[in-house]
Design goal:
By secondary structure, this protein is an alpha+beta fold. 42% of the residues lie in helices and 13% in strands. The chain is built from four helices and two strands. Strands 1-2 form a two-stranded antiparallel sheet. Strand 1 and strand 2 form a beta hairpin. Helix 1 (9-19) packs across helix 2 (25-32). The protein is globular.
Length: 92
């Protein structure tokens, strides 16, 4: 039986960044259960899509999530990232 989850890796990364905006890529990857290479790609996707911003602070990154952005899938587009984060935990 194959393992599957209800949330995508993109959602897991977004949740981790929201919970800890100063987390390293390694910390984000470990918490999301993915490789660091996947985390880097997903963070790039989220940044390119306008869902987060990355700011350098010394040798680390600081991430800012944009909770006002609408979800991408047409069936969920009426909802925002902030609603998703609020629904899935005390992360906002």
């Amino acid at each position: 039986m194959s393992a599957w989850t209800f949330l995508t890796h993109h959602a897991h990364v977004l949740l981790q960044v929201s919970a800890n905006p100063d987390a390293s890529v390694l910390e984000i990857a470990e918490a999301a259960g993915i490789s660091t290479r996947s985390a880097v790609k997903i963070l790039g996707d989220l940044e390119a899509g306008g869902y987060l911003e990355r700011h350098r602070r010394g040798r680390r990154n600081h991430y800012v999530v944009h909770p006002e952005r609408h979800l991408r899938h047409p069936s969920n587009a009426a909802h925002t990232v902030g609603e998703l984060l609020e629904a899935l935990g005390d992360l906002t």
